[in-house]
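Can anyone check this?
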Amino acid sequence: MVKDRMVELLQEHFELNLYEARAYVALVGFGVLTPAELASVSEVPAPRTYDVLRSLEKKGFAISQPGKVNKYRPVHPENILEKFIEEWQERVQEELEAKKQAKEELLQLMKPLIETEIPKYGVERVWVVRGIRNATLKTKEMFEEVKEQILLADDGYIAINLESDIIRAIDNGAKAKVIVTEPVLKRIEGSKILDYAKKGKLELRVLDKFDLPMLICDDEVFFALEDMAARYFNYETQVWIKDFRIKALFEAKFNEYWEKAKKV
């Protein structure tokens, strides 16, 4: 019903609760109502009408006319909704600036913690990362920190979604070898990855399939444990390891794929 949709929109986008939205729609429809009349023409319970109307007045959606029995009329929807949006934009901008300032202050305060090597990067060299969002953040971090070499065997996510991060790492001096499957190659047509491959800035090959997709950045290795159900729900379990011996094992596997793969 149209009335239900109006109530729904007022709740979702204009910060009115259910009874407030129903009351405002009734006021717009009838023009002027007393609390008792509101209870009779809307689905607002009689014991709540006084509080609801006062709340609408406080939020700027209604105006009261004092008397023996208070009467309420709506503020025109075009006026109040536009005013709400303007105030919301100001509030959001203020919150955005506050968050930016908080970020800068936190980075400054955390600088000594970030720069220390003990113990987080010295002792713990194995992490389990779950979910596509967390995996993406970890992958971005690896591309940001890589100095020398990127080895990527990708069957469907990194080359497509993190192209700019790969390119930035190469521009910063890292050498890159990338293996993709045919479906991924088709999806990166026209991308900078393909352009860089043509210009000799990275090496790119294609392979029909490989059992172990992986990303190696210097001594760091990142790979997913096979779980099709988890992949379907974007909750794959990824493993990050920083150890030169593990890196050597994965690099040997990567080189097997590289030898089988065709040049693009």
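Reply from J.R.: I decoded it. The first helix runs from residue 2 to 13.
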